[in-house]
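Work through this:
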Amino acid sequence: MKIINFVTCVFLVSACSFRSAQSEIPTAQESYDDYALELAAFDEVFKHKETVELKPGLISDYAPLTVSSIVYSDSIYVVTDSPNKAVRIFQLDGSEIDYWGRQGEGPGEFATPEWIGVLSDGTLLVRDESFNFRYQQLTVQGEHIRSFYAGSTGPFTNTFVNEDKGKIISISRAICPKNGFFSQSQPCTIIEHDFNTGEVGRIYGEESAIEPGYQGLPFIADYDYDHGTLWIMHRRGGRLVNMSESGSLLDVVDLSTSPDTDLMDMAALPTDFEARASEIARQTVTFARAITLLGDDFVLLELGWAGPKRDSRPQRIMNILDTRKKMFYHGIHSPGVVRAWDEKRGLLLELDNQDIGSDAVHMAWFVFEEPN
């Protein structure tokens, strides 16, 4: 069973370099020639289907509703609200009908509930960060079923559940052995749990293989449930890779030729830790927020900006690539933050144009119009 991957935003690359994996670790060397392409506008690529206004009303003396992540069924939306340490339930018309959770370390309590997914039996899986660093499985009514360690003290960016293969995949930071020895350990970014026991099965995905010469800040990913592979990249990195379940690189996409981007030159960064951190803070560069696979044929990512001059740059760049890794859509602006993708329903965005003075959050479904 596939659990929907929930994201914050999406950026994708354009004229990129790409090659299939060989016996060695693949590198991006073959570039597409520049090509003329009349790019579509957002409303030509995504057709508006419906808008939902989530109207909070059950928590008193609370912080404004914050959608950390959202899942949905035929009858309800379920939202994790990190500032309020709560899981909140909304009907399809947007009215709030239930909530549960409070700050703490006990069953059904949270420190920072960031991610939520729906399992095949209708129960919920919540990733709780900060000082708890755990997963909790609960019913929709908030009844606690089990808890288990998340496998890292974070930061986390993505979680995917593949019940058919009995595993939970988290994107974070941990230490994995090299050549079977922890004495040769390397920083890795993929943590795999056994779905039934909650125990960490393995840790893989060396940071240096995904983005050579750069480590530390979070990686982001999306999971291809059909093929069991991950599309993964460093947030400030210059390439997107497709990684197999064994940890080998299948494809590499060079992002350096993408339009409206300013990638960090990782090779030029100082080796000294303090000098490196100072140089990173000084630069204003594009910052990949998330990756979303649109079915089998398209990849969607979102890019923002990080650094001291970020407010003068476009707040969001959204691009879509086709299977040839050529750009189908490139947009400096989009209506809002991408929260979910569903093959039947389409793309769910949290809209930017919220009502001033209102605690409601506006969400909208858009149907993706594939090119002929």
